[in-house]
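Bumping with the actual sequence this time:
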Amino acid sequence: DALVLPVPQGPRRTAAAVVDRGIARPPWIVAGTARTTGGRPACFTGRTSGVDRCGTLRGARALPLERYLALRGGVVVRCTTIPAAQGDSGGPVYTAPRADGTVRALGITTLITGRRGEMCFTPIQPVLDRLDATLLTGG
């Protein structure tokens, strides 16, 4: 799954790295990555839930699920207050948009947990570090 894709130029479109928001909305320009700090406003776009679903990252203390996955599976995830649905996995997670239309990449939607179906994601920076990769940015 891709976090961001370059898109063709055209009206209200750019060749920069973006979070695509569909044909009716201009894309968010990805200006880099951001830390996954507890309490940070965050948004995601999912195939089932739709575009720009926003909330906050859970607090600095890891949830039991986050600790379990890290210890047992070696998988790092961060959870949010944002409701999600089956089919949203693989969608981009990003900071709340700035007035200039830019966002920063946080990660990729990984799973849904809890009674309220809250979205958890894999942070992008550790993945980039492990792959010795750089995020394509447009800002």
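The tokens above came from a reply further down the thread. Residues 64-73 form the longest helix (10 residues).
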